[in-house]
Amino acid sequence: MKRTRTRALATAPVALLALTLLMGCSPADQGGGVDADGCALPGNKSDAVRVTGDFGTELKLDSRVSAQSFQRTVMQSGDGAPVEAGSWFVGKLNIFVGESGNVYTQEESRFVMSSERLAPWYYSMVNCASEGDRIASVMPAVDMLGPGGGGGEIADDDTLVAVLDLGAVLSPGAGRAVGAEQALPAGFPGVAVDANGVPSIADAAGAAPGASVQFAARIVGEGPVVEPGQTVLAHYRSVVARTGTVLDDTWTATALAFPVDQALPGLAESLTGQTVGSQVVVMVPSAGGYQPDEFESRGMRADDIVVYVVDILDAG
Questions:
Q1: Backbone phi and psi for residue 53, each to the nearest 5 degrees, phi listed first
Q2: Residue 64: which residues within 8 A CB-CB, separation 6 or more?
Q3: Are the CB atoms for 82 and 170 separated by under 8 Å?
């Protein structure tokens, strides 16, 4: 049975069997570890992984693998951009139970390359990779799912085989909106940016959003238009208009990749149709997707307004 789970992929929470083993004894793990640059090394178990399927599609595991340590092998080398800290990478991830070949999950994978945001096994798998690579990693299930994370279906000492087809590596560039500046409409707060592009929001208390979401592009980028269903890479800061209190701020960490359709409704509306490279200022009242209990749980009043400044760095 195919399962789609993402919890094994991200740090918080940590993304996402009938066949018998081949006859004979399984040789001990050999190889693995990391090199002087911190890149995970191949071993006899990751080298033994064999799959069938076109690049970027749902694959079939042809080999049977039992491993007691993490190993990583580049099955196919690409010649595209390397993955670097802050890069946004896009790929097709297939995870199998090594002893049986059964599918654990097969899903699109879109994440920012960050040791703080990715689970250790996934960071080790993608680190030192390049666009176009097909990478195989093997590991005990406990290393991916945590103790008991298999829910009784997968034991901690079972083997999971992850195969990633790295379809695209998208750089956030300068990490800020770049484009033509324009004046915000009347009733919007003032926005200024420092030398690194980090925004500050002034006069938010005087903003006049009315009963519905209002948004405007302060900087208009020259990139492609954000379409419904896409995942965007963005920096953003949000503040409570009445108090100026900062609620969320990616500028202190790493840009965030998220499906635009799964964002707060007011944000989804404001980002769809904008161009990559734009900076969008959004005023979101409770009617824009917040509920009064959400406001109150964060120390706000039910009638408070949240002001967002969002730099759209990439979309796809």
A1: 140, 150
A2: 19, 21, 22, 98, 99, 100, 101
A3: no
pLDDT of residue 16: 37
Over the range 46-82, which residues count as b (16 or more CB within 10 Å of their CB) and which as e? bbbbebebeeeeebebeebbbbebbbbbbbeebeebe
Q: How far apart are CA 162 and CA 107, in angstroms?
A: 11
| Percent of residues in the chain assigned helix, strand, coil, to nearest 5 | 15, 35, 50
Average pLDDT over residues 179-194: 85
What is the residue whose two structure tokens read 């093997």? Answer: 138
Helix, strand or coil, per DSSP, at residue 77: coil
Q: Which two tokens stand for residue 266?
A: 């007011």
Identify residue 238 by its one-letter amino acid code: S
Q: Enumerate the β-bridge partners of residue 193.
A: 199
The pLDDT confidence band at residue 206, using thresholds 50, 70 and 90, is low
* Six token digits for residue 248: 């969320």
Give the count of alpha carbons within 13 A of 251, CB side only: 22
> CA–CA distance from 83 to each of 31, 76, 290, 313 (Å)?
24, 16, 36, 16
Q: With contact defined as beta carbons under 8 Å apart, do 224 and 276 qualify?
A: yes
**Sole residue written with tokens 């963005």:** 234
171-175, 206-210, 255-259: the lowest-pLDDT one:
171-175
Cα 234 → chain centroid: 11
Residue 93: beta bridge partners? Answer: 107, 164
In the numeric block, which tokens belong to residue 68?
């007691």
Separation between Cα atoms, residue 250 and residue 185, nearest integer Å = 25
Q: pTM surpassing 0.90? A: no
- How far apart, in Å, do the first and last CA atoms of the chain sit? 29
Handedness of CA 79, 81, 85, 88 (dihedral sign): negative
Helix (H, G, I), strand (E, B) or coil at 288: helix
Token code pair at residue 249: 């701020």
Q: What is the dihedral of CA 1, 62, 17, 46, to 10 degrees?
A: -110
